[in-house]
Amino acid sequence: MEIFSRLFVVLIVASAAFSVAAQESPSHKQNARPESHSSAPAPQSATMLRGSAVRFSYEFTQPQFYLRHIVIEHDAAGHGKVTFERLNEEVPIVENLEISPKALGRISALWQGLRFLDSDTNYQSDKQFPHLGTMKLTMTDGEKKRTAEFNWSNVKEAAELAKEYRRIADQANFVFDISVARENQPLNAPKLMESFESLLKRNALSDPQQVVPLLKEVSSDERLPLIARNHALRLLAKIK
Question: Which residues lie closer than 8 Å to 130 by C-beta, 6 or more apart?
Fold first, then answer.
């Protein structure tokens, strides 16, 4: 009897151990799935990296213009720099660039509309207007790179893209000039306010909202003439 009792106990213990092992086994399988799932987004991350490596640039050249040479470079997020050379000035001005989401949306849509890297379209119109300056659009994505050059284009997207970049350059030029005026040349501020208003009326600014914080500073900067400060207040009202 004692032998049978011991065998019975052994069988019960073995059965219990088997039951616990059976319950734990699915748990290990469930833990394996998240690990497998967590590695799945890797291809998407690689795609995002490729997308972030895309670079865009715009170049304008007309030696007789006040802004005789402009180069704008930026990534897909709108971060980059703007370089401009001005008439009778030897040293180029280089400023960091942050294209506003609003302007970047317009620019991105135009690049996409052109299908730039996949196209070999000649954007130059039949008529030549070299006196207006030469423009170059460039896109680089890894080993793929394309540059298109024209002085006038009847392709709507190409012409509008050049206008968008010109707005960026004119806005950056104003920001630079008013910053210099506040530091060293306060008497230039009234004329700069007039120039800014002219750009605003002609829709020649990339995004006036970007300049609002600067105009607020100008409106209360006692180093500047009162006429410039009051003009800044009027411009703020127009933008709002």
Answer: 151
- Measure the CA–CA gap between 44 and 117, rounded to whole angstroms: 22
The candidate with the shortest Cα–Cα distance to 140, out of 78, 52, 70, 77, is 52
Q: Where are the alpha helices (DSSP H) in 56-97?
A: none
CB 135 within 8 A of CB 60: yes
Query: Could you read off the pLDDT tens digit of each residue along the chain, which spans 240 residues?
Result: 444 444 343 334 344 444 434 444 433 333 333 333 333 333 333 333 345 689 999 999 999 999 999 999 999 999 999 999 999 999 999 999 999 999 999 999 999 999 999 999 999 999 999 999 999 999 999 999 999 999 999 999 999 999 999 999 999 999 999 999 999 999 999 999 999 999 999 999 999 999 999 999 999 999 999 999 999 999 999 998
Judge residue 193's burial from the number of C-beta atoms within 10 Å of its C-beta, 0-12 exposed, 13-18 middle, 19 or more buried. Answer: buried
| Tokens matching residue 71 | 């180069």
Predicted model pTM: 0.78
> Hey, which residues does 73 pair with through a beta bridge?
57, 81
Cα(50)–Cα(202) distance, integer angstroms: 37
